[in-house]
Amino acid sequence: MHNFELSAPGAICLYGDSVIMYKMTCVGASIGLYTRLTFKSLCSKSIERDFIEFEYSNINLHIRVPLMTFLAYFFHENVNRNAHVTRIRDEVESFVNSLRRMYIGMYEPNNRNHLLSLRAFFFLLVLISYTSRHDIKQSFVVKVSTELAIGQGLGSSASLAVCFAACFLRWSILQKGIAIEEWDMFGKSLIIEFAAICDSIIFNAESKLKAVVSTCGSVVAFNEGKVSRIYLNIPNMKIMLVFSNFGVRVPTVKEIQRYVLKHSITVSILNIVENISKMSVQTFNMIEKKRLPLPEMGHLFLPYYEKLSEFLRMNQEILCAIYMVHPNTKLICAIAQKYLFAGKSISINKSAFILLPPNITDEIIIQLMSEFNSFNMIAILTSLCCDGLRLTETI
């Protein structure tokens, strides 16, 4: 029997914009809020009827499905294990729809979070089983919880997909009698591939930026949609996440992209953002070249913090000129500016993050959070450049 736990962080786009600039230079970073997954396979001899159990506590989803029902649907004699991912997605959607009649537990078919989470779970289970030629013959339980706000642009879907991909890949490897304590780059590349497919095909992600960042952690630079550099020697940076739940409607990704394509001036503006992203990459290159033990970098980091803050401020101001940034985001960044801090919107949501100086005092943090609370906004203190996917415990 196999039991293990793993976790993957959330991710944000620091510089550039992963919605409208996913083919240009972008810089992503992990945040210190994690999705956690526990896996446990069970001995069939002690079970009257084998099952698959999945629980996602944050959204009150808990479902148990007969294993034979799942196997009959996806592993019958004439199944095509080389089917295209879109065909597998369609089959998974059909299977999840059929669960309305046979599940045990708590599942609301009209709850979008329930529906997408189940689709992602079964999609990666089937895809990885087909790819690795892994036959599922025993009951197992997967439990998920997350510290990430769902649907707020923090990479909650990417980190969930990374956890699922890592879980099912690890299980398939363990079934072959191979034990691994941590992922090498080849293993991570497989996880990224599967997680990015899931994030795109199930959650409609525009790029694989967040799947890569959630897997690798720290800071990752992208160019033309591909990873150009992964930074491993960047110190943690304090940030404040600010969420607002009031105001006007948020434009959709497609609406923003249509707006950008319709206005020719946006091309030259995007080139400016591209240059800002490249300057941030140069700054991260300089930080990494220091190669000092991370605890010793605190007092040396301030000049780089000032550069990174200025790039953030410029990035946000220029993005405001391209498309209508949500008024709440503008308010968040304006409050940050009062304290001489830089803020940036998180994707297209009504939320933003603020980059805090390494020497900030508790008094200033409390004062800043109180000001956001006065506008009925929720502020959370966390950090950037945290560890990526990790095997947190083997039981």
UniProtKB/TrEMBL annotation:
Which Gene3D superfamilies does this one have? 3.30.230.10, GHMP kinase, C-terminal domain
Q: Which domain of life is it from?
A: Eukaryota
The record's section on InterPro entries has: GHMP_kinase_C_sf, Mev_gal_kin, Ribosomal_Su5_D2-typ_SF, Ribsml_uS5_D2-typ_fold_subgr
Task: Extract the signal peptide range.
Answer: none
- One GO CC term on file: cytosol
- Keywords for this entry? Cytoplasm, Kinase, Magnesium, Transferase
What Gene Ontology terms describe what this protein does at the molecular function level?
A: ATP binding; mevalonate kinase activity
Xref: SUPFAM superfamilies: Ribosomal protein S5 domain 2-like
One GO BP on record is: cholesterol biosynthetic process
What is the protein name stated in its UniProt record? Mevalonate kinase-like
What organism, scientifically named, is this protein from? Answer: Pogonomyrmex barbatus (red harvester ant)
